[in-house]
């Protein structure tokens, strides 16, 4: 398995309908060495898993090319292309010198300098070089270099290509209608009671009438030539697609009309033949289908709006502080260790740590939370978030492709390129749909001509109508467009769904298991109560003394006490004498006072009576808190209670899950008393305590054996096996990377209400997909029989081929437009 590779988001060019994507999947999936292939029509991408030793990628690309499509593998992540504008060059020796010196830099793969345009194209490996190093090298040679285009991601390049393609489609469409409208007027004007010059009258000048239509339809056919250049070769390869249907239908109408024109020119019943032309059907069909494809492409261009908005969050430039001076440079040139100035209202350029200043930072792009988060020196900040108030000095840590925002974008892109199991039926049908439609169209025409005694022209109309109303596009777009829009919207709300399968599974979840620590609770012990017994010392004085004792300890409870003292700005001192008693507590001498702090066994062993605290200590322990006792100079002085606090939203989230009909369970390794207390506060009535980390996955498996669809919510390393074993793993974004990798859904910033958003999003997306599939199948199931004339024997209407073409165009637009409604999902 050493040569087994998996690549996502391989660009596939040339697909026009679900028949195309289904054909690629079938052919590539049948190649020896290919373990898995999934083609996404909406994203125009492929996910491929294969054995390079058996079948090189070039062979896969060649096989796809044989099918009439183009496969473009993503560029290696390490190689980056940088374009620089260079000033100061005067001759070829200048450009040659820059090429040589930069080309010899470590990590530079290629350096090309163009003297005429005063630009340089540099290709370098990110791990070995950097844009700044390249610019500084050029500056050392006596020239000035500035970034023209920092390498756009493959996604950005594809978006630009799509934008240009959309503009070209619009131009062709406008021109096509400029010829189609006059064509329709000439062909149908007299029938509609509109005036027509005598020169073009079919009754007075049938040849001129026919020639004018030919002259008007030829430019439309030229503008729509892609239907023929793609459709007929696909038909010849025995893998017909939607373009094949249009090419055959409009081609048949054109050839028949051209033959009629020849007969008119030869004088064979010219007036009758003039009324038997279908040039306008060819032109109008091509124009209407082109309009549908344009509207579909324009709608599809909005399916990645979420990614575009996320990518736009990173500012183009950043202010770098060096020796007290401010230097503005492109964000892409920031390196780890740079000190950045972030002014109020500016977006933070990259991930880092605050070294100076305090502010409120708007992190809605990460968490979906509208309230800014208070930040101070030592706190982490993330690229793309907004500094709302004070000036900040931020030390850059992760840059470029390593930032949290870049990781989010990659995860969303991968999710948008994935498939959901619900798409399998539509994909299977799409593979055989177009050949079946062609057979059905031929059969329809023959039945009407041979059995129904219909004239040849009427039989031809039925044949064309069946071909052009069939729409495999709608079926192919029904699932991926909804997944693309839904996962993008989820990312904007702080919920990252890794793939379409996870989205579908989330809609079926009936049991939600929570880990306790760090999931339902904050995950960090905190001092909750200080109860005094005596009037000699205040609460702050007790806290200062015990925190001074514990400041050298790494125990989580000691850290909680010290942290509480620091938050109260209490001045800690070093003990004059200190002793740690394993399993009991600590003793020390501070400010001349003899202190004893720990569990009840420690104080009782020193002969200190604890009777006054019994009732209160019992109540605190019953609430799931750890109780510690403090004595000063041999007299009992106070109780300090510490607990891992429940997250504020935990109760509301559990209640919402119950309302949604989900069974809620809590697993924890804690003592049953603590576990039951936390569960009671959260509203969870099914608790399993003292569950070892390795046994959590077993508990998940046991529920699955009962037929439950289980979602596991966790955040730590010990949750990873259970997250992976569950039908749906939901990882808290505050957790370690292994938990995030194990999860199918990641909740940014660990906010529990993201669970409700994820489940509701999945349900909404799946409902949207089912609506799309219904409309996609309904258009074909109802439209094809009507186009075939099944209503005619019962007195019903026949479907004009032009109306059939309009219905076909409408089907794809309807499906994509319905998917775009998910952009307004609010969670």
What brief labels describe this structure?
single chain, 827 residues, alpha+beta, Alpha-Beta Plaits, seven-stranded mixed sheet, six-stranded antiparallel sheet, 29 helices, 30 strands, P-type Cu(+) transporter
Describe what you observe in this structure.
The chain has 827 residues and is an alpha+beta fold. It has 7 domains: 4-72, Alpha-Beta Plaits, CATH 3.30.70.100; 79-153, Alpha-Beta Plaits (2-Layer Sandwich), CATH 3.30.70; 158-301, no CATH class; 305-314 and 403-498 and 757-827; 322-396, Distorted Sandwich (Calcium-transporting ATPase, cytoplasmic transduction domain A), CATH 2.70.150; 499-522 and 647-756, Rossmann fold, CATH 3.40.50; 526-643, Calcium-transporting ATPase, cytoplasmic domain N, CATH 3.40.1110.10. 48% of the residues lie in helices and 20% in strands. It contains 29 helices and 30 strands. The strands form 6 sheets. The chain has a 7-stranded mixed beta sheet with strand order 18-30-29-28-19-26-27, with helices on both faces. It has a 6-stranded antiparallel beta sheet with strand order 10-9-11-17-12-15, with no helix packed on it. Strands 20-25-24-23-22-21 form a 6-stranded antiparallel beta sheet. α14 (423-451) runs antiparallel to α16 (472-492). It is elongated. The two termini are 42 Å apart. Mean pLDDT is 83; it is low at 735-739. It is an enzyme of class 7 (translocase). InterPro entries: ATPase_P-typ_cyto_dom_N, ATPase_P-typ_P_site, ATPase_P-typ_TM_dom_sf, ATPase_P-typ_transduc_dom_A_sf, ATPase_P-type_domA, HAD-like_sf, HAD_sf, Heavy-metal-associated_CS. Belongs to the cation transport ATPase (P-type) (TC 3.A.3) family. Type IB subfamily. Keywords: ATP-binding, Cell membrane, Copper, Copper transport, Ion transport, Magnesium, Membrane, Metal-binding, Nucleotide-binding, Repeat, Translocase, Transmembrane, Transmembrane helix, Transport.
